[in-house]
Amino acid sequence: MIEQTPWTILMLCIAATSVWRIFGVVIANRIDANGALFQWFSCVAYAMLAGLITRILVFPVGSLAQTELTDRAVAMTVGFVVFFALKRNVFVATVTAFLVFLTLAWLRHSGRL
User: Which of 2, 63, 75, 87 is placed for a possible disulfide with 100 were both Cys, Cβ 3.0 to 4.6 Å?
Assistant: First the structure.
């Protein structure tokens, strides 16, 4: 077996990822953003994101598992409402949902809820 140094492995990894990046740049101009294939990939991406969000909401792991399902569901619902109310602003919706969840968890932990 040939012994590999960390630098050799790093250079091989850089070369391997660079090939795919260059390939992406070459074909990027040929992709129709309004085409059926691109829309299908968008739908798949949204479906995967929805599945991940649902999994985190219903079956949390780690310290999130110690929080109430109600707190997580209310924060997510508020986040969705803000997302659609502000013309799909992901950043504001995420920050709002986080703050709602943080507030509910703090109120429950302090005994005020």
Answer: 75
